[in-house]
Amino acid sequence: MKRRICSYDMVEVPDESYVVTDDIGEIYLCDSRCLCIWAVLLATKPNLDEKIKTQAVTLRLPNREEMTFDNISGLALWATSNALHRAEIERERDKMLFKLAFNKTIQGTLRVSTTTARGSDHVLAIYDNDEAFTRLLEHSGLDADTIGSLKGSAELAYGS
Ligand SMILES: [Zn+2]
Fold first, then answer.
1. Among 35, 37, 49, 135, which residue's Cβ finds the most Cβ atoms within 10 Å?
2. What domain of life does the UniProt record list for this protein's source (predicted)?
């Protein structure tokens, strides 16, 4: 298979990319961001060729679904809201995809941190020991299963 290069940032596009088809050929774009920037740059270009301005374009989405637009402006408008919507979804996913990590520090305290999908680590709290953490957990209002699993993780990390 020939390499497919993104028309915006010139990198090789992943399998799940966007493909724009017009009269001349196919244009590949990595993701919703590349598609949006490329389409807006083209649609707002001064002295844009009349033929490009008015011809219909077909867009193939990463899920293979196809959409047709009357012209590049229509595609640019759709691509902008699509990119903003995707960014919002990704932000939501990052918020959800964190996990708690428990570590015993050199000082013998229990360190509780969160790790997000992007790999950043945030310390939430430091407890004297795992019992101090467990005592607070029991007043947290969480359901018994969640308390049980958090307590288990903390005990395991603390080694008691
Ligand atoms: Zn790209």
1. 35
2. Bacteria
Q: How far apart are CA 116 and CA 60, in angstroms?
A: 32
Residues around ligand 1, an ion, CB closer than 5 A: 6, 8-9, 30, 34
Distance in Å, CA 6 to ligand 1 centroid: 5
pLDDT tens for residues 112-127?
888 766 667 788 888 8
Q: Find the 46 Cα to ligand 1 centroid distance in Å.
A: 23
Q: For residues 72 and 53, what is the distance between their CA atoms, to the nearest angstrom? A: 6
CA of 91 to the centre of ligand 1 (A): 20
Mean pLDDT of 17-42: 94
CA of 119 to the centre of ligand 1 (A): 23
Specify whether 114 is located in the same domain as 65.
Answer: no
Residues 47 and 68 in one domain: yes
pTM tops 0.85, yes or no: no
